[in-house]
């Protein structure tokens, strides 16, 4: 009798666990929909040694302090062939998150871990 009672309790707990898991998934999907289902992340890799000479580092990329969602690209206008040179060109990009060259795998995983469901 005691084993049968334990078996029923185990089945009830399994059903409850399944119900809670379904609710968690529903709420997760609702949050995803409210935030928007598409996320855009940018990870800037470090300059490779053979690129160092040509590019002189990443001086054309600027990571605004206190804003981990923006990236600014500024370069001299190199498309001036046949036209008058306009000077520096600046492009501002916005992402859900920008990871600079020094970002670790752990830091990136922590940012996206909640988006991943098993």
Protein topology:
Elements: H1 2-35, E1 41-43, H2 49-55, E2 61-62, E3 70-76, E4 88-94, E5 97-99, H3 105-112
Helix and strand composition category: alpha+beta
Helix segment tally: 3
Task: Report the portion of residues in β strands.
Answer: 15-25%
The number of distinct structural domains comes to 2
Main beta-sheet annotation: 3 strands, antiparallel
Mean pLDDT: 80
Helix content: 40-55%
* Topology pattern, helix = H, strand = E: HEHEEEEH
Overall body shape:
elongated
Radius of gyration: 25 Å
Subcellular location: Cytoplasm, Cytoskeleton
Coiled coil: 3-37
Keywords: ATP-binding, Coiled coil, Cytoplasm, Cytoskeleton, Microtubule, Motor protein, Nucleotide-binding
Family: Belongs to the TRAFAC class myosin-kinesin ATPase superfamily. Kinesin family.
Explain this structure to me?
- It is found in: Cytoplasm, Cytoskeleton.
- The protein has about 120 residues and is an alpha+beta fold.
- It folds into two domains: about 1-35; about 40-115, no CATH class.
- Helix content is about 40%, strand content about 20%.
- The protein has helices at about 1-35, 50-55, 105-110; strands spanning about 40-45, 60, 70-75, 90-95, 95-100.
- Strands 2-3-4 form a three-stranded antiparallel sheet, with no helix packed on it. The protein has a two-stranded parallel ribbon with strand order 1-5.
- β2 (about 60) and β3 form a beta hairpin.
- The mean pLDDT is about 80.
């Amino acid at each position: 009798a005691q084993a049968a009672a334990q078996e029923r309790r185990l089945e009830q707990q399994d059903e409850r666990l399944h119900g809670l898991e379904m609710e968690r998934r529903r709420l997760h999907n609702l949050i995803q929909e409210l935030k928007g289902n598409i996320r855009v992340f940018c990870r800037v890799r470090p300059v490779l040694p053979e690129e160092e000479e040509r590019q002189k580092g990443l001086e054309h990329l600027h990571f605004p302090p206190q804003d981990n969602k923006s990236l600014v690209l500024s370069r001299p206008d190199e498309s001036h062939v046949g036209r008058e040179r306009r000077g520096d060109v600046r492009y501002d990009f916005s992402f859900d998150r920008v990871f600079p060259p020094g970002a670790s795998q752990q830091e990136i995983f922590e940012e996206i871990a909640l988006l991943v469901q098993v």
